[in-house]
UniProtKB/TrEMBL annotation:
The lineage of its organism: Bacteria, Pseudomonadati, Pseudomonadota, Alphaproteobacteria, Hyphomicrobiales. GO terms for molecular function: phosphorelay sensor kinase activity. CDD domains: HisKA, PAS. It comes from the Bacteria. Residues 987-1097 form the Response regulatory domain. Residues 425-452 form a coiled coil. The keyword Iron does not apply. It comes from Bradyrhizobium guangdongense. GO terms for biological process: regulation of DNA-templated transcription. Residues 98-150, 389-441, 532-585 form the PAC domain. This is histidine kinase. The modification 4-aspartylphosphate is found at D1037. Residues 746-966 form the Histidine kinase domain.
Length: 1100
């Protein structure tokens, strides 16, 4: 229904309002309306407004006094009038209408998008007296939706354009893609692309909707020249309002053009052409249109640069082939396997190969047989290591004669760093002088070609890496900075103001200065040569504005590695940063689900991008929401299948049930809300250890929607911990054995000093036949006990690794065979003895007596371990130890002696103490506990090792590892041990600080025919010699208070060159005895002393 009065909203004026008796109470309505945050107005059934709350005043701009009393129809457009009348009628009939979206006209004619609900109002008797409208402003939401829709369309256009440009292989394909994108994005039917020709005249190269007459008329017109470096887009809303010449305006309008845009196309910072769009009517370009047009133009510029660069590369390749075909040297190109791809004419003629047959030609078949092996090795090494190569060889020519060719070749590396093969030159140097000149000239040509190719590749890389419009260059040699006006503007500097590196550093925001400076230094560093890729803020030098800049660049270095310059691009991304902030703020007001999805994606992006670990994100159904490349690669490496987002890990591992259950169990913990870290070993092909951290993934409401995992490969760390533990255990064992060795060695030394006079005295009593038969039996028993004590001391010394060894090259196999009968008789009839010696067994450097004693002790231990009989197997073979052997033995050749029994064996606790001295499981009186200790000490002292392998009930295998030697095996030294006849052999000077030892030794010397002078210290002996004593023999103990025996012996040798010298050693002090000094080990008898003196006299 209508009020009967239709007036424009601008004609509404305030007028008094007279209330009707059938309307609701105004006090109640006023209280409700005034307190509502939403716009509300009330009206009578004839559509006349009766109430207008403050929220409605704010939204539509009318005060209550201006609008009350006017019809609702005054607030609607003419197009919506009939709809509004229908709503008034429906509400007056008692129907609630809405919510519905409509447009209402506010004050000053402003149209607003509103969501309205209209309900009937009744009086106290239930009669409908009018209606009430409840309103919400939807303008901002519609604007946001329109903006998002427009953005999606623009991104779709740019994505489609990018795809077409990437696929384009010709300039015409690039032009067509760009024209389609610009006309679609800017809703214009006409556009064109113009480029400068070689004469710097702007020419049409592609167009849509432009007549030939128009093109001929305006061709050559341009607001820029090829030298322009600060060109910016020009947008003309109406050609009539522009400053162009009237004649040009007339031509443009004659083509039906009123609005147009000039967008520069840039290459290396200079204008190469322009992109034009045309509109039939005046057109006010929005900020979005200008930005989108500039973006399309930049993509067009980059694609044109790529096409031009590719054309230049093709021309370069053609020039290379032409040069190669007419070059006076032999040029070839190979693939990554060394197979020929190209042979120039001269080389084809040399080998007699047709160009069509290059693919099947094997150049290596022409190498002279004497040179073939060396050439193949050198070429194979160069290809494998991707390094240059220089070599010479003889090759068979087509005539059948061999010619000497000198080859220089270099690796070919693709733009992505892949190895393509080799390129090389063969020079016939049979006639050295002529060939040398040809080689130098060819190398220079190749070097120029390579430099040009590298420069082109670098320009192409920079051009495609960043769609920038600002180029910069730093001359590092002269420290000169080159900035075009566009880059100066990014730092708030006027175009004509000179700049230096100080302006660059001082213009950086303090919070970004350190990071940017470090990135630039890395790019200019000859060792790092890093890509300069940064985003930073600047503070304008002249205007103080803060801007965002994205910059990329690389250093250029000479052959010596010196940085000549750093060059690159910069782009002002302030608007982009602002847009990102605005978009973020807008996104926060969008619908709940969009917010959740964006939040989830942001969480995932932060997780994936914030770590270099393996990252997996899984939902509650065990499906991957995301998995980074490193995690996918490692998963495929371990399980043999490649995961991807959306796939279920349980379905992917059905072929590995054990692994599937393990993954299900651990992820079930994480998906139940548990956050934990564990280390596990995974993989069938290669077992590796991983540290896995599980965390809960929640949405914006805090609800769990899955879990994510960070995984680090800690295999090396685990191995290092194990190696450290083994090293600590070895150190502990070494320290324990060293301490026990020092203890036992010290005891043995003192014991030897005690034994020496005992053995000497008993020996003298035996020789002199003192007493009767009973006394002689007692003396013999005492001598036997002394010998057993001597043997015990030798075992202690062997364990302590302090037994003086008489090591020499020995055929171990012969030694073992020689002991066969002794071992068999010692083992008894219940033990079967088997000896197996490897043929051609190398010699080992050992002390034969000590080794025999060690083997005999091991055989006795084996016999005792087989109380019911068994098998004793003794073997010897040669072994080679390398660094991967897993033992402490040094790499080299060894002789391994194995003594294995089938006895009761040892458990781990017994085996751990087996080499400890005096440790025995045989019971009291059945062993000294030194057998294994002595064998272990002997092996260690000889540079080898002793290993034990044993299991209870299965027997024991003891292995002695001895270093082998190439020294010849010396024949056994047959020495008589009989006492020489007593005679006047001269004076012997005897020096020892132990009186009993000295007395026993003096008695032996006198029995051997020497006149003996005794001294209790080295200093006393020196005084005797200084007093005129000139002994024919000096026998001195080594370890004494004051000067030791070694120093005394050297002094006597220098003072009395003809004097025989013999050093007596208890044990450890033999390590300090010089190897050139003869020595005698305590305890000793007269036969030992006589034999030693006889050897000294014979070797005089």
């Amino acid at each position: 229904m209508s009020s009967g009065v239709e007036r424009p909203i601008s004609a509404i004026k305030a007028k008094p309002y007279r209330s009707e008796t059938n309307e609701p109470g105004p006090a109640v309505l006023s209280a409700i309306l005034a307190g509502s945050p939403d716009p509300i107005w009330c009206w009578r059934i004839d559509g006349i407004i009766t109430q207008w709350n403050p929220a409605a005043e704010r939204l539509l701009g009318f005060e209550a006094s201006e609008i009350v009393g006017h019809s609702l129809l005054d607030l609607v457009t003419q197009a919506d009038r009939s709809v509004a009348e229908n709503i008034i009628d429906r509400v007056s009939a008692g129907e609630s209408v809405g919510p519905f979206e409509t447009v209402r006209v506010g004050k000053k004619g402003r149209a607003l998008s509103l969501e309205i609900t209209a309900v009937p109002l009744r009086d106290q008797n239930g009669l409908i007296v009018g209606g009430a409208s409840f309103c919400r402003d939807t303008s901002e939401r519609k604007s946001a939706a329109e903006f998002l829709s427009r953005t999606v369309r623009e991104l779709g256009t740019l994505f489609h354009l990018t795809e077409r440009l990437q696929a384009a292989r010709t300039a015409q394909e690039v032009y067509e893609a760009a024209l389609e994108a610009i006309t679609e994005a800017l809703a214009c039917e006409r556009a064109s692309i113009l480029l400068f020709d070689p004469a710097s005249v702007m020419r049409f190269v592609a167009w849509r909707g432009i007549s030939e007459q128009y093109r001929k008329t305006v061709e050559g017109h341009s607001p820029w020249t090829p030298e322009t470096t600060d060109a910016v887009p020009i947008f003309v809303a109406d050609i009539r309002d522009s400053n162009e010449p009237d004649a040009l305006k007339k031509v443009i309008e004659g083509e039906g053009i009123r609005g147009l845009a000039f967008i520069p196309l840039l290459r290396d910072g200079h204008v190469i052409g322009k992109f034009m769009t045309y509109y039939r009517s005046p057109h006010q370009f929005s900020e979005g249109e200008t930005r989108l047009a500039s973006t399309i133009a930049r993509q067009l510029s980059l694609s044109l640069d790529r096409i031009m660069t590719e054309e230049q590369l093709r021309e370069s390749e053609l020039r290379f082939r032409l040069m190669s075909e007419h070059a006076p040297v032999m040029i070839w190109i190979s693939d990554s396997a060394g197979k020929c791809l190209h042979l120039n004419r001269l080389l084809r003629d040399f080998w007699g190969v047709e160009e069509a047959g290059i693919a099947d030609f094997d150049w290596s078949s022409t190498i002279h047989p004497d040179d073939a092996a060396a050439v193949r090795v050198q070429v194979g090494t160069a290809i494998a290591q991707r390094v240059p190569i220089e070599l010479k060889g003889r090759y068979r020519s087509a005539s059948g004669t061999y010619r000497v060719l000198e080859t220089v070749a270099h690796p070919r590396i693709g733009a992505s760093g892949e190895f393509l093969g080799m390129i090389g030159v063969n020079v016939d140097v049979t006639e050295r002088e002529e060939a040398e000149a040809e080689r130098r000239r060819t190398q220079e040509e190749l070097q120029v070609t390579n430099v040009a190719l590298r420069e082109n590749e670098e320009r192409l890389r920079l051009a495609t890496a960043n769609a920038d419009v600002g180029f910069w260059d730093v001359d590092e040699v002269n420290q000169v900075l080159h900035w075009p006006p566009l880059v100066k503007a990014m730092f708030g500097i006027a175009p004509d103001t000179p700049v230096s590196m100080l302006d660059f550093y001082s213009g950086l925001h303090p919070e970004d200065r350190d990071a940017v400076s470090a990135a630039y230094a890395a790019a200019a560093d000859p060792d790092m040569r890093a890509l300069y890729d940064v985003e930073y803020r600047t503070i304008g030098k002249e205007d103080g504005r803060i801007r965002w800049v994205a910059a990329k660049g690389r250093g250029v270095f000479d052959a010596e590695g010196r940085c000549l310059r750093v060059t690159g691009t910069a782009i002002d991304i302030t608007a982009r940063k602002a847009d990102e902030a605005k978009l973020k703020e807008l996104n926060e007001t969008l619908e709940r689900r969009i917010s959740e999805v964006l939040a989830e994606r942001k969480v995932l992006a932060d997780i994936v991008e914030g770590t270099d670990a393996f990252v997996q994100v899984v939902d509650l159904e065990f499906r991957w929401l995301a998995i980074n490349k490193a995690a996918a690669n490692e998963f495929e490496k371990i399980f043999g299948v490649r995961p991807q987002a959306g796939a279920c890990m349980l379905d992917l591992l059905t072929h590995l049930p054990a692994e599937r259950e393990a993954l299900r169990a651990v992820w079930a913990r994480a998906l139940s809300g548990e956050e934990f870290t564990e280390i596990a070993a995974l993989g069938e092909r290669e077992r590796r250890h991983y540290e896995m951290k599980y965390n809960t993934l929640r949405n914006s409401k805090g609800e769990q929607i899955g879990a994510y995992q960070f995984v680090y490969d800690v295999s090396e760390r685990i191995r290092e911990h194990e190696r450290l533990a083994r090293a600590k255990e070895q150190l502990r064992q070494g320290q324990k054995m060293e301490a026990m060795g020092q203890l036992t060695g010290g005891v043995a030394h003192d014991f030897n000093n005690l034994l020496t006079p005992i053995v000497g005295a008993l020996d003298a009593l035996q020789r002199r036949g003192v007493g009767g038969e009973r006394e002689q039996r007692l003396i013999a028993g005492a001598m036997q006990s002394a010998d057993r004590a001597k043997t015990l001391v030798q075992r202690l010394l062997a364990f302590a690794r302090r037994q003086p060894l008489q090591a020499r090259a020995t055929q171990v196999g012969d030694l073992i065979h020689g002991m066969g009968e002794l071992i068999a008789s010692t083992s008894g009839p219940q033990v079967k003895v088997s000896v197996e010696i490897e043929q051609d067994l190398p010699a080992a450097k050992v002390d034969e007596n000590q080794l025999e004693m060690a083997l005999l002790n091991l055989a006795v231990n084996a016999r005792d371990a087989m109380p019911d009989g068994g098998t004793l197997r003794i073997t010897a073979d040669a072994q080679h130890i390398d660094a991967k052997h897993g033992t402490d033995l040094k790499p080299g050749r060894y002789v391994r002696i194995s003594v294995a029994d089938s006895g009761i064996g040892m458990d781990e606790s017994v085996k751990a103490r087996a080499i400890e001295p005096f440790f025995s499981t045989k019971g009291i009186g059945k062993g000294t506990g030194l057998g294994l200790s002595m064998a272990h000490g002997l092996a260690s002292q000889l540079g080898g090792a002793l290993t034990i392998q044993s299991r209870p009930g299965l027997g024991t295998n003891i292995e002695i590892w001895l270093p082998s030697t190439d020294e010849p095996v010396a024949p056994e030294n047959q020495q008589t041990a009989s006492v020489p006849p007593v005679g006047a052999l001269g004076t012997a000077l005897l020096v020892d600080d132990e009186p009993l030892v000295r007395a026993a030794a003096a008695d032996m010397l006198m029995d051997l025919g020497y006149a003996v002078l005794e001294a209790g210290s080295a200093e006393e002996a020196i005084r005797l010699i200084g007093g005129g004593v000139k002994p024919q023999l000096l026998i001195t103990d080594h370890l004494m208070t004051g000067m030791n025996g070694t120093d005394l012996a050297r002094l006597v040798r220098s003072e009395l060159p003809g004097t025989l010298v013999l050093v007596v050693s208890g044990y450890a002090e033999s390590e300090g005895v010089a190897p050139d000094l003869p020595r005698l080990v305590k305890p000793f008898g007269i036969n030992d002393l006589a034999a030693k003196l006889a050897s000294l006299s014979s070797g005089r």
